[in-house]
Amino acid sequence: MRRGIYTFLSLFAFVFSAETLSAQSSSGSTNYFIYALIGIGVIIVLSAISMLAGNLLEIEAQKHGVDLDNEGESTFGQLKSMFGKSVPTFADKRNFHELKKGHDIKLKGKATGAIQDVSITRFSVSPKSFNGISPIPKVLVQAGDEVKAGQVLFFDKKRPEVKYVSPVSGEVVEVTRAEKRSIADVIILADKEQSRIKHDIPSLSDTSREDLVSFLQESGAWTLFDQRPFNILPGTEDVPANIFISTFDSAPLAPNANVVAEGKGEAFQKGIDVLNCLTEGKVYLGLDASSNTPSSVFTQAENAEKHWFRGKHPAGNVGVQIHHIAPITKTSKVWTLGVQEVISLGSLFLTGSLDMSRVVAITGAPLAEAKYVRTYQGANISDLLKDQGLEEGVRILSGDVLSGKEKAMDGFLNFRDDQITVLEEGDDYELFGWLLPLAPRPSVSKTFPGFLMPNFEFEANTNTHGEKRAFVVTGQYEKVLPMDIYPQHLMKAILTGNIERMEGLGITELAEEDIALCEFVCTSKQPLQKILRDGLTDLQEQL
Question: Model's pTM, two decimal places?
Answer without folding.
Answer: 0.85
